[in-house]
Write a structure and sequence with these properties.
Elements: H1 5-34, H2 52-57, H3 81-98, E1 101-102, H4 107-112, H5 120-130, H6 133-142, E2 145-158, E3 162-175, E4 178-193, E5 196-204
Antiparallel strand pairs: 1-2, 2-3, 3-4, 4-5
Length: 210
Amino acid sequence: MDLNAGQRKAVFGLIVVLLVGLGAYLFVSSSRGSGHSPSAATHSPAPQPTSPATQASTPSPSPVAAGSSDPDIYQWLPFTEAQLGSAAGVVTQFSDAYGTWSYSQNATSYVTTMRSLITSELAEVIEQGYSVPGVASQRTSKKQVSTGSTVINSIRAFGSSSITFVVTITEQITATAGQSRNSNQYAVTVVSSGTSWQVNDIELASAGNS
């Protein structure tokens, strides 16, 4: 239908009011949609430094003790280190003397060189062995002279008052026919005699002196 001038003005005014209201609504809705909350990824809290107390509570590997001492084996033996050294010294002196002899010596003279190191029983045994006719005549006829030297190889056995050493005695022999060298391994046993040691037995090591 046709509207007169007054009606057209009223309709126009109503349209303007509706358009203004619609624009205000759209503006407010747009503003609410764009105002988002801060994300946790963007504003994550910075790592907190470890406090001295926390650091102190963290266990650390224990250092290995350097230069730890070796076990004292002498606490398991019936003699001290000094006593073992003294026994070895007696064995070496005796063995050197045992391998040192001359065709010009009789049995008594030969045993005298070691008498302070041996028991009286062993002294008798050595004298008898030195005087065996066949061995004695060979020394004399060939004018043999021997110089002995000793190397201790090991300890074979020990007890509360005795130690048996395995030794190598080398005889450097000079004779009318020239020089020769003779080495044998012996088992030499020493026994405690108060504060000192004495040799009471010598046998070839293969014989099994223990």
